[in-house]
Design goal:
The protein has about 425 residues and is of the alpha/beta class. It contains 16 helices and 13 strands. The protein has two domains: about 140 residues, Rossmann fold (3-Layer(aba) Sandwich); about 290 residues, no CATH class. About 40% of the residues lie in helices and about 20% in strands. Strand 9 and strand 10 form a beta hairpin. Helix 1 packs across helix 2 and helix 10 crosses helix 12.
């Protein structure tokens, strides 16, 4: 499958003063596949060391970490490899399993003769801390599951067709109804499938949602395994409970603020907040923080103890619910809190995958609420998500009364429109173009 990271990897490879590169991201989002395809297309050979598959390869980094010594050890380990500067890519996969390999990245970068890419999940947790982390000697690329545009590529939708859609978005021009209807249909299939490559591949090949469901549940079990295997003993059960509560928190309640009482009866932040922190560092969840005021810089007004939590891919959220949820999504028969929750999660997924930090606002006194707030070019941009095309009262009030807000977005199951008060209405799938 075509992935956007390919272009980023090419840019890194072409840069003159490149450092070592770490490709970060949750498990099973396609990191290994993407680096391998990039290496095949751009290097004469790839020296790939997967520390989970070949744990004994850690011996290469057990002693002297001079580059010549490490290269010599690799040549003895892989005698068929030439390992030549500029012609070989050294790919250290699942690098979180070898702390000295992480340390070695500093010396590869200082030497600067060899192109080195490292990849791994769970790099943000204190699982196996490197003796000396290579701060300042590595570049980073964050990889997620497929976004909607990548999903369209998989369906065979061409770049010029997507550019045409993006043109409607940029011109704020109504999309022809036949195209808009088809795009919403594609988007519902994307929401039901999610962006995990294995699930998307199965959907593209079979269009069999029972098979997709089986893969999604297997992926969810894999994430639960990671929690059980890598979390500290005191966090294992708590982190898993927090994670598995997300479907209830987001799809069954009208208020999507994360509530510890939904994890267990009488649950409190004092018991569970450290588990949320662990899930966040492990790239298993993303957070949308509450802000006390809608002003730039939003981080200055954010509260760490008041947030919404989302899975980092829709595949995992959908797998937490019964198979019939997929049927309702695809057939557009969702209703109530579930419909609003699904569309909110889909927009959050798109914004997160486009690199935005997410915030929200709610005032119990004035009853004003904003589903999301992002920052662009030094300004705050409020966003509301509507399961229908109802009035965005809170959004209009903020755009009208706040000096630092020029416009806001309202995402709906409908078409594009702009009103005189600065509210830009967009189809839900256009969150991918933000």
């Amino acid at each position: 499958m075509r992935r956007k990271i390919s272009a980023e990897l090419k840019d890194w490879s072409a840069s003159k003063d490149k450092k070592c590169l770490i490709v970060q991201g949750a498990r099973q989002v396609g990191k290994t596949y993407s680096v391998e395809r990039f290496a095949e297309a751009n290097y004469e050979e790839v020296v790939e060391i997967n520390f989970k598959e070949i744990p004994s390869a850690a011996d290469i980094f057990a002693g002297d970490l001079s580059v010549d010594t490490m290269v010599m050890a690799m040549r003895f380990r892989f005698p068929e490899k030439k390992i030549l500067p500029g012609k070989s890519l050294i790919f250290l996969d699942e690098i979180q399993e070898c702390q000295e390999a992480i340390t070695s990245l500093k010396f590869w970068a200082i030497d600067n003769r060899y192109d080195v890419i490292a990849s791994g999940s769970l790099l943000g947790i204190d699982y196996k801390r490197a003796s000396s982390y290579p701060v300042g000697y590595v570049d980073y690329i964050k990889m997620n599951g497929l976004d909607f545009e990548e999903f369209l590529w998989g369906l065979g939708v061409t770049d010029d067709m997507i550019d045409s859609l993006r043109g409607y978005f940029e011109r704020r021009e109504v999309v022809p109804e036949a195209i808009n209807t088809q795009m919403m249909n594609y988007y519902r299939h994307y929401i039901a499938t999610g962006g995990m490559p294995e699930a998307v591949k199965e959907y593209l090949e079979s269009r069999d949602y029972r098979a997709v469901d089986k893969i999604q549940r297997s992926l969810l079990q894999g994430y639960q395994y990671d929690i059980a295997h890598y979390a500290h003993a005191e966090e294992k059960v708590k982190a898993e409970k927090c994670y598995l509560s997300l479907a209830k928190q987001l799809l069954e309640k009208e208020n999507h603020k994360f509530q510890y009482k939904e994890v267990e009866h009488g649950g409190r932040a004092q018991k569970y907040f450290s588990s949320i922190e662990w899930l966040l560092r492990a790239d298993i969840i993303s957070l949308c923080k509450y802000v006390t005021d809608v002003k730039y810089d939003l981080e200055d007004y954010a509260r760490d103890d008041f947030f919404r939590a989302y899975t980092t891919d829709l595949s995992l959220l959908i797998a937490m619910k019964d198979f019939t949820l997929k049927q309702h999504i695809v057939e557009n028969t969702l209703s109530g809190n579930t419909k609003g929750g699904i569309y909110e999660c889909a927009v959050a997924d798109a914004l997160y995958k486009n690199g935005y930090s997410l915030f929200f606002y709610k005032n119990e006194t004035t009853k004003r609420e904003l589903d999301f707030i992002i920052q662009k070019e030094g300004r705050v941009v409020p966003i509301e998500v509507k399961s229908g095309n109802t009035r965005a009262t809170s959004l209009k009030a903020f755009v009208k009364n706040k000096d630092n807000i020029e416009y806001g977005y309202k995402f709906i199951d409908g078409n594009i429109g702009v009103d005189e008060e600065g509210i830009i209405t967009l189809p839900l799938y256009m969150a991918a173009f933000m």
